[in-house]
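I hope you will forgive my troubling you with a question about protein structure. The full record is reproduced below for your convenience:

——
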Amino acid sequence: MRLAHRGIDITVLDGPYVVDGKPTPDAVAYYTDLIERLEALRTFAAESLLRLYNEAWLTDEIGVLDRAAFVRRLSNPAVHIYDEVGAAIVYFDDGDMFGGHAIAISIRDGAPTSAEIVG
């Protein structure tokens, strides 16, 4: 199921977070919490991927980035709630830091566990 919440694209996969074709109150609470923590998730991505950008993907057009500049480049978040309770991925556009690939933050029980370049 796809929907928008506070202007953010949300995908909720069938499973414990969907009943009668609608997100459960737990699903709504979970994706609302993730949306409220987008800035912290951007910071997590920067802590995980900034060094990789500066050492391997650096371009003359963008230049060397610090954490704040990296965070500012992450845009267009999308939240995917999976069929396992507590599992989610939050995606961001990469601001062309990684050739237009998306950044995926894996979430387990509300906590970020990894940040990866995908797509």
Summary: The chain has one domain: 2-118. The CA atoms of residues 16 and 74 lie 30 Å apart. The radius of gyration is 15 Å. The first helix runs from residue 25 to 36.
